[in-house]
Amino acid sequence: LFMSRGPVTLRSIAAKKLSAPIETAPVEGCSNFRNSLDLKPDHAFRPMWVCEDGRIMLESSSPVYKEACDFLVAIAEPVCRTRYMQEYQLTQYSMYAGASMGLRTSDILSAMERFSKTRVPQKVKEDVTTHTSRYGKVKLVLQQDRFYIECPGDPEVLEELMRDDVLRGFRVVRNAAEQLRVNDMRGGLAAEKAVQASGVDGDTVPEPVEALAGDDHFRASARAATEEEDELGASSIEDFEVDPSKVREVKERCAVLQWPLLEEYDFRNDTETPELAIELKPETRIRDYQSNSLARMFGNHRARSGIIVLPCGAGKTLVGIVAACTVRRSCLVLCNSSVSVEQWYNQFLMWAKLSEDRITRFTADHKKMPHKEACILVSTYSMLGFGGRRSAEAQAIMDDIKRREWGLLLMDEVHVVPANTFYTCTTQVKSRSKLGLTATLVREDGKIEDLNFLIGPKLYEANWIDLQDKGYIANVQCAEVWCDMTAEFYREYLKGNAAVQRLLYAMNPSKFRACEFLMRYHERRGDKVIVFSDNVFALKKYAIKLGRPFIYGPTSQKERLDYLGQFRMGNEINTIFISKVGDTSIDLPEANVIIQIASHFGARRQEAQRLGRILRPKSRSDSEFNAFFYTLISRDTQEMFYSTKRQQFLVDQGYAFKVIVNLVGMDSQETLAYSTARDQRQLLEEVLVANADAAAADDEDDDAAYQRGIQQDSAPAVSRKRGDVSALSGGDGIAYTEVRRERNALFKQRDRDKKRQRS
């Protein structure tokens, strides 16, 4: 680089290039902000850059990193948070969330100027001003089982919303007087037709409609109906009712119009809703990040609707319990499986002082009617979202759930809510505030943005690496082990279809030996090992060959509890093989090693959920890392592509994957399975004989059981299985016998007539 070219060196050429204006030619995937961002003289002491497109880069090595990070978590969405550099993105909903916490526009802009290395771009200032100044002027209110949009003190804003063609279709008009006022607000539409259609003479004032007791909205409408026509035209409407089944669409449309709906519950001044006698036990202690997340929800002494994101094992359940104890009103908790229902039920009784008759479960095994006054009900999404026929007792409970006004709707694993079968849970239940909890706010179908309309904005997201450094979660070493495929296996891999390829790279002999090597190494250290495999054929082969127990869909509940109990408490079982049924709802705090041999394509959420099985804090600290996460990958296969995609979420959280090409010491161990060419050929023959169809049948059984674990209690699971003609005809495994069957009465009569004729 520094070789002389006459009197000019390459270094001088580079210096001239750097001093010359930079051409801003568009480059795909890149943005050049050098000409638009001017560094401040003291930029070295400031921690972040603010770009024109709303991206913000934060240096975690800055002395004021903590203050800047807290500020960005309040107003921006975390995109990537590595150990030394973090990226955030200003979005419409993140700025709404910041405004909902009481941050004023001037506060946000001044903090940006204080922390930024460059001048804050004018476009960013305009966006912040636009979004934060409009928040809070439009409210969504639940009163007497009806939803209203209110604009107190801003009739012009309400008029703008009422003139919108989309929102007009979601309105509920209950009397002719209200229709007259609506038409007047629309700019003089045919009010006379509305009166004639209601059967009221145009020269007379309609009779007021009888209002419900305590319903201020209907009393206001009734009083307005008795006023003179000139006063009617000059009056202004402060609210209007919307269809409860269209609340999601109303929120979405208001966001498009840049008038976001404010959902807050003033529970301290609510004297109409029955109060629940619940409080935390004196010995209950919450951590600082849990307190910070709850402060985002109750910052102004009201309950805001939104989502809190905490890592697996960081105490999301306790956060939800503290929120319920703060609101002290009826609370509905929704989980994704009956196992989670039992965990929430037991955790409530463990951490809170609550009478047992005030907390009930609604599952297939528990159908006790909730307390007629304030209570806590724990159920599953599938129980509420089921659309078929129910038993009489289940239907009575569902009617009670729909009839109540719940003070708090708690949704565990909230990332499942946008699914078509589950999102109706948010529309069927009338709640004054909603809180969603999850560790992985990510979906592969792109529907994660729907949570902004279904629940609310993200209120808080913890930094996984910060919690790890403080000892709140385990310090995990992530590694990707590359396993070469043998020549015979790779030859069949290149010839096979996609299903056969997946089976071959899961049953790779090199991967088999690497799994056994790592398992035995960690067992000698006294570790507890979980081996995950989505491929049930591989799961069985590995577990049976290595002599370890395995759990998958058809495994009975008793057998599961026995294996898990021995894994937790004893030394007889230190390694257990589990299929996808162990991704969630299995609490194994003793486990500190995970080995993945087969996964579900490129699912980022599954990768994070499996890592969460070993994130519980560990007492062992004899090395830098006290937990290990291995992913075994067959080299030069499609599995490498899937693995890179799966790791993206954890990489964005700051985890680094170490690539291991060679496991030191593995080749010298001749006792490992499938170490000889003969054994490897025999394994290949078993795999090819089994073929992909048989393996797929096992996977379908596991999928069906997995769905029963998530969607149980509602309807029997349906799965597609292989079969033959004898099975379809009912002759599978049945001995042939002749049975004298009773003849139809018509044929009996015909036989009698024939006998008479012969005689």
TrEMBL record:
The keyword Transmembrane helix does not apply. Residues 699-731 are annotated as: Disordered. It comes from the Eukaryota. NCBIfam families: rad25. GO terms for cellular component: nucleotide-excision repair factor 3 complex; transcription factor TFIIH holo complex; transcription preinitiation complex. This is DNA 3'-5' helicase. GO terms for molecular function: 3'-5' DNA helicase activity; ATP binding; DNA binding; hydrolase activity. Keywords: ATP-binding, DNA damage, DNA repair, DNA-binding, Helicase, Hydrolase, Isomerase, Nucleotide-binding, Nucleus. It catalyses: Couples ATP hydrolysis with the unwinding of duplex DNA by translocating in the 3'-5' direction; ATP + H2O = ADP + phosphate + H(+). It is found in: Nucleus. Residues 513-665 form the Helicase C-terminal domain. One of its GO terms (biological process) is transcription initiation at RNA polymerase II promoter. Belongs to the helicase family. RAD25/XPB subfamily. PROSITE patterns: HELICASE_ATP_BIND_1, HELICASE_CTER. Residues 297-459 form the Helicase ATP-binding domain. Its EC number is 5.6.2.4. The keyword Nucleus applies.
